[in-house]
Design brief:
The chain starts with a strand and ends in a 5-residue tail after the last strand. Helix 4 crosses helix 5 and helix 4 crosses helix 10. It is of the alpha/beta class and 348 residues long. It is 24% helix and 26% strand. The protein has eleven helices and 17 strands. The structure holds NADP nicotinamide-adenine-dinucleotide phosphate (NAP) and zinc ion.
Length: 348
C-alpha cells in the first residue's frame, strides 16, 4: 500500500483534521499522482456537513485535483512519469452501459459512477479525495492538463469548469444569445468566463454588490443585483438561457419569469432543501427547467483543451491546508474570490 496523508472530516459536521491513510498499490491501468493543488468546491462543504445525507466518514473531500504523475501501471498508455495530470469528481464507472458508452460516465446507469470521495470503489473500499498528498486512479479517469496554464488555477476547472462548460455546450450557448449566470461563486465565475468565450451576451445575477466590478472583469456584459426587483423586472421575458449555480435555497420562479418563450433554465447548484415551483412559471412561455451533473471524461478533456486554447483559468485564493475550516466558513458567507485552492506543499 502507498502511504498518504491529508485532512479528513472524522464524523458528520466535525471540523477537518489531519488524517493518515493508504492508497492502493498500482494496478496495470492505474496512475499514481502526487497532488500539488486541490480546489475547494461548495459540494465539499455540503458533504462534510452531511447536508445531502448518506455521508461516509471519515471523509477526505476534494475533487479538483491537479499534480504530477509519479508512477504508472504496466498497461498505462495516456501518461508517463512526470506528466501533469488531473482528477475531477469521478474515479470509476461501469464503462459499459448506454451512458458510459456515450461518454457520459456521470450518468452511469450500470454500477453508478464512483465519486472521487464520499463513495465506494467497486470492491467496497471507501474513496478518499484530493485534500491529500497523492491519489491512485485508473487512467481512464485521469485528465491531461494543458501546460500553458497556471497549474494551481487549473485545479478548479476539474469540477467548477466542467460543471458549467457541459450545460453551456449541451444547450448550445453561443453568439446572439442572452445568457444569465446566477451566483458569482466558484461555478458561477467559471460560467461567466466560459459563456463569454463562447460568444454569448452574459448577464450575472448576484446578491453581493461588492462583486459587480469583478463580474465585469470576468466577462459579464451586464450585472444585476438579484435582490433589486426593479432591476430584475427590467429583464422579464428576455433570456435564452439561465444557468443557476446557487448553493442555498432561493426562488426559481423569479428567474424562470426572465426567460424568453422556449428559454431554458438549468440548475447546477444543489441546495439541501426542495424548491417551491409554480407550474405557471413554466407554462407561461413554454419555458423549460432542467439540471446538469458535472460532465463526462471526454468532455472534461475537451473543456481543459478549450481553456488551454482560450487561456481560461479560475481566479483563486491559495490557502494552506490548515486554513480549510475557516475557508468553509467564508464559503458559506459567499466570501470567496472566486475559488479556494489548497497548496499541498503545506501538508509537509
Ligand atoms: P460557491 O463558490 O459557494 O458559490 C455559490 C454562490 O451562490 C455564492 O458565491 C453566492 O453568489 C450565491 N449564493 C450563496 N448563497 C445564496 C443565497 N442564499 N441566495 C442567493 N445566492 C446565494 O459554491 P460553488 O462551489 O460554486 O457551488 C455552487 C453549487 O453547485 C453548490 O450547491 C454545489 O454543491 C453545486 N455543484 C453542483 C455540481 C453539479 O454537477 N451539478 C458540481 C459542483 C457543484 P453571489 O455572492 O454572487 O450572490
Ligand atoms: Zn465540485
Amino acid at each position: 500500500m502507498i502511504k498518504a496523508k491529508g485532512y479528513a472530516v472524522p464524523t458528520a459536521k466535525a471540523p477537518l483534521a489531519p488524517f493518515s491513510f493508504e492508497r492502493r498499490e498500482l494496478r496495470d491501468n492505474d496512475v499514481h499522482i502526487e497532488i500539488h493543488y486541490c480546489g475547494v468546491c461548495h459540494s465539499d462543504v455540503h458533504q462534510a456537513r452531511d447536508e445531502w445525507g448518506r455521508g461516509i466518514f471519515p471523509m477526505v473531500p476534494g475533487h479538483e485535483i491537479v499534480g504530477e504523475v509519479k508512477a504508472i501501471g504496466s498497461k498505462v498508455k495516456k501518461f508517463k512519469v512526470g506528466d501533469l495530470a488531473g482528477v475531477g469528481c469521478m474515479v470509476d464507472s461501469c464503462l459499459d452501459c448506454r451512458s458510459c458508452k456515450e461518454g457520459l460516465e456521470q450518468y452511469c446507469e450500470g454500477s453508478g459512477f464512483v465519486g472521487t470521495y464520499n463513495s465506494k470503489e467497486k470492491d467496497g473500499t471507501p474513496t478518499y479525495g484530493g485534500y491529500s498528498s497523492s491519489i491512485v486512479v485508473r487512467e481512464e479517469f485521469a485528465l491531461s492538463i494543458p501546460k500553458n496554464l497556471s497549474l494551481a488555477a487549473t485545479a478548479p476547472l476539474l469540477c467548477a469548469g466542467i460543471t458549467t462548460y457541459s450545460p453551456l455546450r449541451h444547450w448550445k450557448v453561443g453568439k446572439g444569445q442572452k445568457v444569465g449566470v446566477v451566483g458569482l461563486g466558484g461555478l458561477g465565475h467559471m460560467g461567466v468566463k466560459l459563456a463569454n468565450a463562447m460568444g454569448a451576451h452574459v448577464v450575472v445575477f448576484t446578491t453581493s454588490p461588492s462583486k459587480v466590478e469583478d463580474a465585469k472583469r470576468l466577462g459579464a456584459h451586464e450585472v444585476i443585483i438579484s435582490k433589486d426587483m426593479e432591476q430584475m423586472k427590467a429583464h422579464s421575458n428576455s433570456f435564452d438561457f439561465i444557468l443557476d449555480t446557487v448553493s442555498a435555497p432561493h426562488d426559481y420562479n423569479l428567474y424562470l419569469s426572465l426567460l424568453h418563450r422556449d428559454g431554458n433554465m438549468v440548475l447546477v447548484g444543489l441546495p439541501d432543501k426542495p424548491p417551491e415551483l409554480y407550474a405557471g412559471s413554466l407554462i407561461m412561455g413554454r419555458r423549460k427547467l432542467g439540471g446538469s451533473l458535472i460532465g463526462g471524461i471526454q468532455e472534461t478533456q475537451e473543456m481543459l483543451d478549450f481553456c488551454g486554447k482560450h487561456n481560461i483559468v479560475s481566479d483563486i485564493e491559495m490557502i494552506p491546508m490548515k486554513y480549510i475550516n475557516e475557508a468553509y466558513e467564508r464559503m458559506i458567507k459567499s466570501d470567496v474570490k472566486y475559488r479556494f485552492v489548497i497548496d499541498m506543499k503545506s501538508l509537509a
